[in-house]
């Protein structure tokens, strides 16, 4: 059964009037306005999403430290991201995926759309592990290793979550038939083959037109269920800090994604609750649950 995911949390928060121009993006509201995060999550649940992704994508211990928060407060805010998504549940059986965004997201300069930061796999693992441990201990149903731009960081994320006892998905941001760093998708998706902790592999924050081909490669290369939650099709201009181009997110296109093997489907940046409601109406009533 196909599972419906949520859409762009930050997009929804901005649409509700919140200023997310700082480097912490939506994670800033964990400290400033947690009720706003609950409301945004709930809007997606009411639209038919069965899984919410937490507001921890751009959160990091270093980023919180720059706001003047000590390590204890930073840990508490990461834990809070999971609690708020759980609080937002409508039926009580929706699931929470703790977002582990890429290293580049914490730089707030668009690096997550390029990859190749000049760091080793070991260095990237050391960066991701503390946050992954905190989020896993907060009790989410899943970990979302998402918007991964290259294979090195994917390998690091898999090492960082190893042994934490929480199932996870691995999702790349891609362009055409390669990762943002230019690696073949077959190579990228193959890193999850045989990893029992990974319950789905796929793509997010990419052009919707790239989903179907990537989904077929993901299933063949990884042997895993496929997840896809593209953005609207617009392009993020990191320097101007705005989206440009034309929106192309169409719930009707989901039929092609399902035919290509996608089992978990939603949206990313610029995809709002109304879009998820339309998508859910196309996909299936009721949704389902990911394998544990």
UniProtKB/TrEMBL annotation:
All copies of domain Hcy-binding, residue ranges: 1-283
Domain of life: Bacteria
Cofactor section: Zn(2+)
Keywords on record: Metal-binding, Methyltransferase, Transferase, Zinc
Protein name: Homocysteine S-methyltransferase
Species classification: Bacteria, Bacillati, Actinomycetota, Actinomycetes, Pseudonocardiales
Residues that coordinate or bind Zn(2+): 205, 268-269
EC number assigned by the record: 2.1.1.10
Keyword Coiled coil applies: no
A molecular-function term among this protein's GO annotations: methyltransferase activity
InterPro entries: BHMT-like (IPR017226), HCY_dom (IPR003726), HCY_dom_sf (IPR036589), Hcy_S-methyltransferase (IPR051486)
One Pfam family this sequence matches: S-methyl_trans
Any one of the GO BP annotations: methylation
């Amino acid at each position: 059964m196909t599972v419906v995911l949520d859409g762009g949390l930050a997009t929804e928060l901005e649409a509700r009037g919140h200023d997310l121009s700082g480097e912490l993006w939506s994670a800033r509201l964990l400290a400033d306005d947690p009720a706003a995060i609950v409301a945004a999550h709930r809007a997606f649940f009411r639209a038919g999403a069965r899984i919410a992704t937490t507001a921890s994508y751009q959160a990091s211990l270093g980023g919180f430290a720059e706001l003047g928060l000590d390590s204890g407060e930073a840990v508490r805010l990461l834990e809070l991201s999971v609690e708020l998504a759980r609080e937002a549940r409508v039926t009580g059986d929706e699931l929470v995926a703790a977002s582990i965004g890429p290293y580049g997201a914490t730089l707030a300069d668009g690096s997550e759309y390029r990859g190749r930061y000049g760091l080793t796999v070991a260095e990237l693992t050391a960066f991701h592990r503390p946050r992954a441990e905190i989020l896993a201990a907060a009790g989410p149903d899943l970990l979302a290793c998402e918007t991964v731009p290259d294979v090195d960081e994917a390998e690091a994320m898999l090492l960082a979550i190893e042994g934490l006892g929480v199932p996870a998905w691995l999702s790349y941001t891609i362009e055409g038939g390669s990762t943002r760093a230019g690696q073949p998708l077959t190579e990228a998706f193959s890193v999850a083959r045989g990893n029992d902790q990974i319950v789905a592999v796929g793509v997010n924050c990419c052009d919707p037109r790239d989903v179907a081909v990537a989904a077929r490669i993901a299933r063949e290369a990884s042997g895993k269920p496929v997840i896809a939650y593209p953005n609207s099709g617009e392009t993020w201009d990191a320097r101007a800090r705005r989206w440009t181009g034309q929106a192309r997110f169409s719930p009707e296109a989901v039929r092609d994604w399902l035919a290509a093997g996608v089992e978990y489907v939603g949206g990313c940046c610029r995809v709002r609750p109304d879009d998820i409601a339309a998508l859910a109406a196309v996909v299936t009533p009721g949704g389902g649950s990911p394998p544990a």
